[in-house]
Amino acid sequence: MVAVVRCLMVLLLAQVLLEGATGLIPEVGRRKYSESGKQTPEQSESFLNEFELRLLNMFGLRRRPTPSKQAVVPQYMVDLYRMHSANGDHSTKRPKSMGKHAERAASKANTIRSFHHEESMEALASLKGKTTQQFYFNLTSIPEDELITSAELRIYRDQVMGATSPNNNSRNSSISNSTIAGGSHRINIYEMFGVPAAQSGEPLARLLDTRLVQDSLSRWESFDVSPAVSQWTSGKGHNHGFVVEVVHPEEGEIDGGHAKRRSRHVRVSRSLHQDQDSWPQARPLLVTYGHDGRGDSVLHTREKRQAALRKQRRKHQHKASCKRHALYVDFSDVGWNEWIVAPPGYHAFYCHGECPFPLADHLNSTNHAIVQTLVNSVNSNIPRACCVPTDLSPISLLYLDEYEKVILKNYQDMVVEGCGCR
Ligand SMILES: *[C@@H]1O[C@H](CO)[C@@H](O)[C@H](O)[C@H]1NC(C)=O
Ligand SMILES: *[C@@H]1O[C@H](CO)[C@@H](O)[C@H](O)[C@H]1NC(C)=O
Ligand SMILES: *[C@@H]1O[C@H](CO)[C@@H](O)[C@H](O)[C@H]1NC(C)=O
Ligand SMILES: *[C@@H]1O[C@H](CO)[C@@H](O)[C@H](O)[C@H]1NC(C)=O
Ligand SMILES: *[C@@H]1O[C@H](CO)[C@@H](O)[C@H](O)[C@H]1NC(C)=O
């Protein structure tokens, strides 16, 4: 009975998809769909709304996200997406600036989220020999059932002017020689435990990560902030934000006139950033790695699909009998290209065909399906077994949620890898 109901549902879905002609219906396909004359426009409208709602539900979203034109997709997220979902393209390497801990975390996570800090809540302080900046990242959009296993804070820093040319000694009399000979500075990342006591001015904080960096390089630095973020998201701690502290040992004694130079060490604030156009891509980024307990990691998507594709190529196909057919779901047909950054669509495939008596071995049937087909051959009141997916694989989606946060997530059972009679 259950099998029959499932069979009917699958047939209905296949019918819906096929009548959509160009793939998955709404928006563009909507007109064609209602012209097919099988349903009134009102009926198909409400059906499509229901259909979309169910799909969004499946994605864990309450409504269709409608990101603004200003929504920024960080290049790092695009790189992670390429790395994880490249279709058989092994040349895609991990992003150069990706931390080792982040790489390990990504291999276990099925959801990777990125956050920009709340600029209205930043606080900048320039003390003698160091610059500190407070950041707050609003993480409330992370669902409760998502376990955060790792988090990295990524900060872009610019090379210090003059640090690249140790031999250029036109200014060597006024500045200490370590700056000229390619010095270094230290970046400390702290978790804040509350607002600073008014008198002392020093916020309560614990050190999360630290690094000594060369002045002469422009690059992203990745800091491990997992302990703080996993406490915040599991409800064991309150999110008061981070402090990023940049220490310039050599400049401690030299005062005045170097504030501008110092500020170029780390582009931590829009106000300090010189090229405003590049700010959206150069601003700090918090990346969380988590798992909601459903299915494989983002990294395994690619491996599983490749294995399944190889298997598929080996299998030889029969004509009218149950088999896999091409079905490309184009997200722009559904109007979803506004919030799904990548891929533009994907090969979902579907199962269709006869499950004739007697069931052949390659139809991957169950004993039950064989019995049902047997009964059907003598009693046509009992339907034949159904042609259904027997093996499904996940895909990775890079998308913007309703708060314009960029998320890379692995979705289970999105692609038919094999069909069978059940
Ligand atoms: C965080 O974001 C949520 C959802 O947008 C909002 O309701 C909340 O007020 C924000 N919290 C802070 C501290 O900005
Ligand atoms: C030395 O510095 C000057 C200006 O600061 C620059 O024009 C010149 O190209 C530099 N020379 C080398 C060899 O880097
Ligand atoms: C740079 O410093 C070295 C050693 O302190 C000195 O010999 C040299 O003359 C200086 N060069 C200039 C251009 O001031
Ligand atoms: C300049 O560099 C030399 C060797 O690299 C070092 O011994 C000396 O202490 C440095 N001077 C200053 C003022 O930092
Ligand atoms: C038949 O389906 C099962 C369950 O999806 C799968 O484990 C098995 O590999 C399939 N066999 C063939 C020959 O495709």
What does this structure look like?
The chain is α+β, with helices and mostly antiparallel strands and 422 residues long. 27% of the residues lie in helices and 26% in strands. It is built from eleven helices and 16 strands. The strands form four sheets. Strands 7-4-9-1-16-15-12 form a seven-stranded antiparallel sheet, sandwiched between helices. Helix 2 (26-35) packs antiparallel against helix 3. The longest helix has 18 residues, at 2-19. The chain starts with a helix and ends with a strand. 33% of the residues are buried. It binds 2-acetamido-2-deoxy-beta-D-glucopyranose (5 copies). The site of one 2-acetamido-2-deoxy-beta-D-glucopyranose has 3 residues, from helix 6.
Can you lay out the helices and strands and say which pair or pack?
Blueprint: H1 2-19, H2 26-35, H3 41-58, H4 75-85, H5 100-108, E1 111-115, E2 123-127, E3 130-135, E4 147-157, H6 177-180, E5 184-192, E6 205-214, E7 219-224, H7 226-233, E8 242-247, H8 259-263, H9 279-282, E9 285-291, H10 298-314, E10 323-325, E11 328-330, E12 340-342, E13 345-347, E14 350-352, H11 367-378, E15 387-400, E16 406-421
Antiparallel strand pairs: 1-9, 1-16, 2-3, 3-8, 4-7, 4-9, 5-6, 5-8, 10-14, 11-13, 12-15, 15-16
Helix pairs in contact: 2-3
The structure holds 2-acetamido-2-deoxy-beta-D-glucopyranose (5 copies).
